[in-house]
């Protein structure tokens, strides 16, 4: 079986990743075309959580730097997008690129400071970022709209795309579905780039830095520069995620980027399994799909609306505790240990 | 890499590409049409069936804004159940779904998607909050969902050309600011006035209204950012400016904070709070929590001035309050009747009026048109009429100024009405009619 897989799959890593992304694209199209508009909008939501989470998993899982400030970096991306899209002169792909670039720039500054800090000090510094940045939006309320935030005119599907998709699928392209396509297209692109990065030299040296700083430094690696680079890559992802968020939510407001956002990204990454892109995807799916599912179960079990709403954060907390107890390596850690056990049994044959 | 390997890769790539094409073109043949809209007999529009009408709303049921506000939908639900138990509207019962957004606009957009796309509600009724609701304003209007009676006094909801489906409900903050301003001008013409404002539309609109009358009396205007609980500097600045009267456009938690801060500074001005921030029961509970039990009730805001547009829970011999008590006793859940539940019931009452006006076959367009045509004539639990017309989606037109006394209030003046901008303030002399005997409005269908 293994031999067969090897014969069919190309040996070039890049090509393999391109193939996987293409296959994923087919799945995404199928899923989005066969699910309801509401599910489409949930997938759109999941896409921006996932973009930020995969960026964070590279930083935390691969390079060993913790960040409690990714929500703030998403805010930078979201506000950049909102400002650029405000008068309709800038096309949205350009706004997305600009949001990514601006956030990467912020990442350079924060990363330079972060590279000098370790453990709880790094957590504290990034926490300050998460608390402070939304306050900027309130302070500069003339430009950034204060507490109410900036409304974003999210892009409408262009006619040619609507026609093309209608030709292919006989479904109309709704606003929700278009945004889901936009989000998932971006996510797949990010996944492709990150998967390559992780499989290549940078992935290797980041891991080396994480596992043993002294050994890495003796091997000639420049720790500071590598740490900053990891932070910048991660920040760029967060900025892009913020840009998608702004377009999906149609708003950039400080109350959308509280410390809760940063923490839920971190929990998504940890629950899924640190350092694993698939794990980050699973974790973001949990963030999006679990609360409404729990609320609905609660309502149908006869709880009042208020009680059902309070059930969601409770169950979320329980899931977190259980994962930490049963599978400290997250879902992907569990999968990996099963696979290893399977291999060992296979080897003894 | 060996040459055959690269070759194999290309072959595999081509295979996948072909597969992708095949799969996506399958979709074109396989699926006929999307199933939009509700089918079935008697369904005149999305969310309407032969025997039900489904409406929804978003509220903060968890998180910092939940105390007080989470009671509003329980009140609305109780009133809808009361109407359903008495035969519904045009033979249809009202299904009411409310979901939690934790006062976070990102969540609001998600739960609104859920309400509109999955629950397929006919209309949004009473969605709460300025930052939260403005996140879904474009979406609701784009999808053509009636967005009725937003639970916020922002001026954003009155833009009939830009947002034809959205209607305000409570008196907007500018109207309230004007009436408070005139009261201060007439009754405390020599007092130095300070403003304590939430730093968003709420404070801004209120300030605009107040300045229209007492611009020359205002000695300081201090703003706070919601979320920042240290308001010492602001209150100290008001004290330093010598303000003898402070007008606060703030939410209940900042009423409590401003009282505790002033107490610490030994500063005793005459406080005037906007209606939003003055519910004695909630402020009392917050005072007790913030002071860690040192202050146990609302006695600190006893004597403060505020405004009112609905009979409150303490006015137990008002016929409207008696109706709400009856409804809550029969259909409410746990807890007592509160001013927030009365607010929810009053919104629900207005929606029942609008639905009756929309006729036996209600449509989304129809209910908006009905409100524009007869909305200005509707009378209900509020002391004043609505300003609804084809050119205005603004809600209630006025308030009366009252003094907080114990858990209730005492009138300081007559009910007054006005409009935004230069409109004069006039006394509203129409008698406040009691509710119909069965407690359910009886509005004739329009057109």
UniProtKB/TrEMBL annotation, chain A:
<dbReference type="GO" id="GO:0015658">
    <property type="term" value="F:branched-chain amino acid transmembrane transporter activity"/>
</dbReference>
<dbReference type="Pfam" id="PF02653">
    <property type="entry name" value="BPD_transp_2"/>
</dbReference>
<dbReference type="InterPro" id="IPR043428">
    <property type="entry name" value="LivM-like"/>
</dbReference>
<dbReference type="GO" id="GO:0005886">
    <property type="term" value="C:plasma membrane"/>
</dbReference>
<keyword id="KW-1003">Cell membrane</keyword>
<keyword id="KW-0472">Membrane</keyword>
<keyword id="KW-1133">Transmembrane helix</keyword>
<dbReference type="InterPro" id="IPR001851">
    <property type="entry name" value="ABC_transp_permease"/>
</dbReference>
<protein>
    <submittedName>
        <fullName>Branched-chain amino acid ABC transporter permease</fullName>
    </submittedName>
</protein>
<keyword id="KW-0812">Transmembrane</keyword>
UniProtKB/TrEMBL annotation, chain B:
<keyword id="KW-0732">Signal</keyword>
<dbReference type="InterPro" id="IPR028082">
    <property type="entry name" value="Peripla_BP_I"/>
</dbReference>
<dbReference type="Pfam" id="PF13458">
    <property type="entry name" value="Peripla_BP_6"/>
</dbReference>
<dbReference type="InterPro" id="IPR028081">
    <property type="entry name" value="Leu-bd"/>
</dbReference>
<comment type="similarity">
    <text>Belongs to the leucine-binding protein family.</text>
</comment>
<protein>
    <submittedName>
        <fullName>Amino acid-binding protein</fullName>
    </submittedName>
</protein>
């Amino acid at each position: 079986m293994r031999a067969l897989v090897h014969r069919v799959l190309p040996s070039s890593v890049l090509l393999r990743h391109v193939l996987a992304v293409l296959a994923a694209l087919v799945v995404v199209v199928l899923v989005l075309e066969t699910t309801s508009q509401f599910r489409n909008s949930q997938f759109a939501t999941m896409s921006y959580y996932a973009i930020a989470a995969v960026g964070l998993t590279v930083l935390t899982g691969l390079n060993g730097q913790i960040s409690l400030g990714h929500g703030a970096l998403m805010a930078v991306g979201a506000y950049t997008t909102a400002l650029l899209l405000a008068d309709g002169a800038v096309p949205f792909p350009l706004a997305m690129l600009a949001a990514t670039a601006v956030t990467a720039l912020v990442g350079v500054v924060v990363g330079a400071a972060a590279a000098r800090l370790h453990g709880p000090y790094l957590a504290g510094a990034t926490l300050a970022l998460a608390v402070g940045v939304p306050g900027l939006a309130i302070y500069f309320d003339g430009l950034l709209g204060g507490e109410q935030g900036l409304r974003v005119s999210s892009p409408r599907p262009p006619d040619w795309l609507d026609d093309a998709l209608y030709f292919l699928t006989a479904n109309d392209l709704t606003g929700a579905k278009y945004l889901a396509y936009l989000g998932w297209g971006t996510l797949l692109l990010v996944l492709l780039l990150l998967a390559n990065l992780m499989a290549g030299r940078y992935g290797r040296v980041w891991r080396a830095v994480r596992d043993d700083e002294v050994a890495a430094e003796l091997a000639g690696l420049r720790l500071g520069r590598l740490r900053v680079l990891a932070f910048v890559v991660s920040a760029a992802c967060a900025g892009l995620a913020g840009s998608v968020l702004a377009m999906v939510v149609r708003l950039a407001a400080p109350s959308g980027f509280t410390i809760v956002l940063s923490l839920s990204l971190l929990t998504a990454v940890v629950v899924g399994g640190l350092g694993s892109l698939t794990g980050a995807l699973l974790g973001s799916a949990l963030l999006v799909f679990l609360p409404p599912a729990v609320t609905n179960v609660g309502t149908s079990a006869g709880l009042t609306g208020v009680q059902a709403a309070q059930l969601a954060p409770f169950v979320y907390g329980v899931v977190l505790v259980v994962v930490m107890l049963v599978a400290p390596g997250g879902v992907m850690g569990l999968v990996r240990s099963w696979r290893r056990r399977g291999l060992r049994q296979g080897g003894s044959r | 890499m060996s040459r055959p390997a690269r070759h194999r890769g290309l072959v595999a790539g081509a295979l996948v590409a072909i597969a992708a094409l095949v799969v996506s073109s399958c979709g074109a043949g396989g699926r006929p049409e999307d199933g939009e809209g509700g089918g079935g007999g008697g369904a005149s529009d999305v969310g309407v069936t032969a025997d039900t009408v489904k409406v929804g709303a978003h509220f903060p049921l968890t998180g910092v804004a939940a105390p007080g506000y989470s009671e509003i939908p329980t009140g609305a639900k109780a009133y809808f159940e009361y109407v359903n138990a008495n035969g519904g509207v045009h033979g249809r019962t009202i299904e009411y779904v409310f979901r939690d957004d934790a006062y976070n606009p990102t969540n609001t957009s998600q739960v609104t998607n859920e309400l509109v796309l999955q629950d397929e509600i006919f209309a949004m009724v009473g969605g709460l909050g300025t930052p939260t609701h403005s996140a879904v304003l474009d979406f609701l209007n784009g999808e053509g969902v009636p967005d009725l009676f937003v639970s916020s006094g922002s001026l954003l909801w009155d833009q009939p050309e830009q947002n034809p489906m959205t209607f305000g409900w409570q008196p907007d903050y500018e109207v309230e600011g004007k009436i408070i301003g005139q009261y201060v001008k007439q009754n405390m013409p020599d007092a130095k006035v300070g403003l304590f404002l939430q730093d968003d539309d709420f404070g801004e609109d209120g300030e605009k209204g107040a300045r229209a009358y007492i611009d020359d009396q205002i000695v300081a205007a201090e703003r706070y950012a919601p979320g920042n609980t240290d308001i010492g500097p602001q209150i100290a600045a008001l004290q330093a400016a010598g303000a003898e009267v402070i007008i606060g456009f703030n939410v209940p938690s900042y009423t409590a904070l401003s009282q505790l801060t002033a107490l610490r500074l030994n500063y005793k001005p005459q406080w005037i709070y906007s209606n939003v921030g003055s519910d004695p029961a909630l402020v009392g509970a917050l005072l007790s929590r913030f002071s860690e039990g040192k202050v146990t009730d609302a006695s600190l805001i006893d004597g403060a001035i505020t405004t009112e547009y609905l009979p409150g829970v303490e006015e137990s011999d008002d016929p409207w309050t008696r109706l709400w008590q009856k409804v809550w006793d029969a259909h409410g859940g746990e807890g007592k009747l509160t001013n927030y539940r009365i607010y929810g019931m009053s919104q629900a009452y207005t929606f029942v009026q609008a639905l009756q006006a929309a006729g036996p076959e209600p449509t989304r367009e129809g209910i908006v048109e009905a409100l524009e045509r007869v909305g200005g004539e509707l009378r209900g639990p509020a002391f004043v009429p609505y300003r609804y017309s084809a050119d205005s989606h603004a809600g209630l037109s006025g308030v009366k100024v009252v003094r907080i006394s114990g858990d209730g209030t005492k009138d300081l003046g007559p009910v007054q009405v006005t409009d935004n901008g230069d409109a004069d303030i006039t006394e509203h002399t129409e008698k406040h009619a009691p509710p119909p005997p069965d407690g359910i409005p009886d509005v004739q269908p329009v057109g």
